[in-house]
Amino acid sequence: MLKSPLTLRYTVLSIAVLLAILAYTVYWFMLAGEIERGINAWAEARRGEGMVVKYDALEVTGFPLRVQPQATNVHIAGPGPHPVWGWQSARLTGNVLPYSLNHIVLSAPQPQEISLQINDGAPETYMLAPQSAFASVALKQGMADRLDVDIRDATLRGGNIKTGALTFERAQLHLRAGEDGAPQGLHNPALFDVSMKLENMDYPGFAGSALGQHLSRMAATASIEGAWPSEKGTAGVRQWRDAGGVAQISAMELDWGPLKLNATGTLALDEKDRLIGSLTSKLAGYEGLIKGLQDAGQLKPDEAAAAKTGLGMIALASGSKNGELSLPMVLQDGEMFVGPLRIAKLKPLF
Known about the structure:
17-stranded antiparallel β-sheet, 17 strands, elongated, alpha+beta
């Protein structure tokens, strides 16, 4: 007996669905295997360059909605017998959607050990314990085109953090490949664009400073310009600096204790690896900043009185009604000035 057209239609549709499921299953397992082999090949290539790349186990799960490689006891460090940086965590997990292979999301919620060698000194070890830590990598033609890092509710200990622990509510970093300067004829092509944000940081070691131990918000957006260095690590940064590399700051915001500041301008590094530059800033609440500098011993009473009078005259001349002043911000010879006020000493970055 022949099947009815409706029954035949359902039969064909069911077979098509089963074949699609089978094809997707085969595709997923082939993709998972390819990703696992790619990770192992990448690790081997980095070892060939002298880096440390270790992990105890690597497995790929997540079927059917995602491909999720997961490595345990991960240790990655820079090249050489004495790496200038290193990172370790009990688990590192990746997530890739089978239909969007150019977007990778990494997570490492367990405590992380970070080692840094600064100014050619002994390695400093820090322990970062976040509630969540994610990194998103977008690829373009096989190369990283954008990197986004988001860390929430974290505690940082060790290294130069000698008093208690440093805590923060959220830290974000965004990097994006810059424009190719050659077609536009730019003198200093944009190598990459960067923006960062730090919210609600507390550190008891800053309690006696002019700005206090609580930072409400620090944010900046900049374009890093210059020529790509041939060296790596700190040697590469110095090579970039010596070739005229600069950071064009399009926006910077700082809300730290009595200091309320917005600024734009240009920053670079001096020969001692300290920040140097000139910016145009808008300063609010200068009276609180002067008091904080005086309480911290950075201004004598007569210097504080003179600064308050001088800035008051500037405010009066500019017609400021809300206490906001437009002042030059200068970083030079290891010191930071906002107008006539020296607000900070600058140490070498590395």
